Amino acid sequence: MSLALIFMAPFTASASSDTRPNTTEVQKERSSGVSSVWVVVNLFTGRTSKQAVRVRETLERLGAGGRGIILPFSEVTVETMEKLQPAFLALSPNGMPWCRYRGKNGADLENFFSALRVIVEEMNIPVIGICGGHQALALAFGGKVGPIRGEEDDCLPYGKKPTEKGRHDVYVTEKDPLLLGMGESLNLVQNHFDEVKRLPPGFICLAKNDLCPYQIIRHPTKPAYGVQAHTEYYRPGRPDGGLLLRNFLNIARSHNRVARVPASTSDDSVLTSTPPGQDKKRLPVRATQRNQLPGEESGDALTRGTDRTVSEKRPKRSHSRLTRKPRKRHR
């Protein structure tokens, strides 16, 4: 059975800086209702952020294909999404408690939440939220978010250390295509103070642990997911974050083919998230592929310290004496 059959629903929407979409280019790229563009929504209070860039780079590495752009949440409106018809949305981590989004930022956030409900339920666009994006998805649909060491209506400033930081296991509570090819527990990078305190009505909890009861959540009928962990960070031997994202790309690809493309259309070009040169009908990730994620062979250790979710400083390379070029001696 196609993964998309799980989420089938009628499409009901009405007719540089690389963070800004080129409308003319997008119109040329659009094919039968789905564009080759996909969007990373920056949930920080600027146009872009290191975290949003990291999410985009990781999705590109995992085979998102098409063209990824970053938009601030203030510009993610129903009208903009109707013009773009993106293949999917990825909601980035954020940098401060939701209760601190005030004034214009607060109004823009409420408008984004309203638009997100339409984007998911009426426009049928796949969505995945990462860390703060997971919390934003819950808030948009009527859930509650608060500090781990507090109540759902508390507004506490972030301390010097996150309440859940480093690698932690989360435990699967419901089977789902997002977890295809994975075991009963996942090892993921965490770095957060807040958590989802109450699920939105109808939402399904897919994974939990003792500290946070809603680690992975899903909309009841649409391909809209939230993952509390930083899935943009993974490494050889512990690839679960990357596997989750790659499974999401497969879900979005199948969903767009079945639910967002008119039945009379058979053009495979609408499968915009398929990497160039790869089979567009490739099966989803299997357990035998757990150590075969892109970038790992070259030593791309994405989790050399979870502080890089805040700072993108990379460690200096060390050179072996066997490979170091000899210095020229001057007599």
Residue fraction in strands: 15-25%
- CATH hierarchy: architecture: 3-Layer(aba) Sandwich
| Major sheet attributes | 9 strands, mixed
Structural class: alpha/beta
Q: How many separate helices?
A: 6
Order of SSEs: HEHEHEHEHEEEEEEEH
C-alpha-based Rg, rounded = 20 Å
Notable characteristics:
single chain, 331 residues, alpha/beta, Rossmann fold, nine-stranded mixed β-sheet, two-stranded antiparallel sheet, 6 helices, 22% helix, disordered N terminus
Describe this structure in words.
With 331 residues, this protein is α/β, with parallel strands linked by helices. The chain has one domain (3-309): Rossmann fold (3-Layer(aba) Sandwich), CATH 3.40.50. Helices cover 22% and strands 17% of the residues. It is built from 6 helices and 11 strands. The strands form 2 sheets. It has a 9-stranded mixed β-sheet with strand order 2-1-3-4-11-10-9-6-7, with helices on both faces. A hairpin with a 7-residue loop joins β9 (204-208) and β10 (216-218). α4 crosses α5. The chain is globular and about 45 Å long.
List the helices and strands and how they pair.
Layout: H1 23-29, E1 37-42, H2 50-61, E2 67-72, H3 78-84, E3 89-91, H4 103-121, E4 127-130, H5 132-140, E5 144-147, E6 164-172, E7 185-192, E8 194-198, E9 204-208, E10 216-218, E11 224-227, H6 240-259
Parallel strand pairs: 1-2, 1-3, 3-4, 4-11
Antiparallel strand pairs: 5-8, 6-7, 6-9, 9-10, 10-11
Helix pairs in contact: 4-5
